Amino acid sequence: MSTLARIGVAIDSELLSDFDAYLDRRKYANRSEGFRDLIRDALIGEKTEKPDQPAVGTLTLVYDHHTRSLSEKLTAMQHDHQELVVSTLHVHLDHHNCLEVLVLRGSAGQIRHFAEGIIATKGVQHGQLVITTTS
Ligand code: NI
C-alpha cells in the first residue's frame, strides 16, 4: 500500500462549485475520492489507448435475434476469437430482442478491434465497450 500524499490545488471558484455539485450528484462523500476517481479514469483512459496494454473489457450488445443469420454470425465471431472471450451472458429481453454481455481479456488493441467488428455487424442495434486495466 502506498502512502498518502497531500496536495494543494488552486482552482477557479466557479469551477470548484461546479465540481462540488457534480460530486453531490454522484454521491461522493468528499472531494478527495472524487479527485482520485477522475485521475484514475484519465490515467486508465490513456493507458488503454495503447494497443499493447493488457486490458479487460465488457461489451454490451442489443440485437434482434430474428435478423437473418445474426446469432450464428455473432457466435462464429466469438469462436474465432475464443482467446479474447472469457465469458458471455445472454438475456432474452422480449420476443425479438436479446441482450448480450461479453467479458473480454487481451491487449487493448485486440479488444477494441474485436468489439468494433461486433458492433458494426448488421443487425446489432446498440453496442458499447467499457475497457479497463488493473496494472
Ligand atoms: Ni435471446
Descriptive overview:
The structure is a single chain. By secondary structure, the protein is of the alpha+beta class. The protein folds into two domains: about 15-45; about 55-130, Alpha-Beta Plaits (2-Layer Sandwich). It has four helices and four strands. The mean pLDDT is about 95. The structure holds nickel (II) ion.
Form type: elongated
SSE arrangement, N to C: HHEHEEHE
Structural class: alpha+beta
The radius of gyration over CA amounts to: 20 Å
Number of self-contained structural domains? 2
The named CATH superfamily of the largest domain: ACT-like. Chain A, domain 2
CATH class of the largest domain: Alpha Beta
> What is the first-to-last residue Cα distance?
14 Å
Mean model confidence by pLDDT: 95
Instruction: Report the major sheet.
Output: 4 strands, antiparallel
Under the CATH scheme, the architecture of the largest domain is: 2-Layer Sandwich
Ligands (ions, cofactors included): nickel (II) ion
- Enumerate the strands of the largest sheet in spatial order, edge to edge or round the barrel: 2-3-1-4
Number of DSSP helices? Answer: 4
Uncertain ranges:
none
**Into which percentage range does the β-strand content fall?**
25-35%
Helix content: 25-40%
Query: What's the total count of β strands?
Result: 4
Topology-level CATH name of the largest domain: Alpha-Beta Plaits
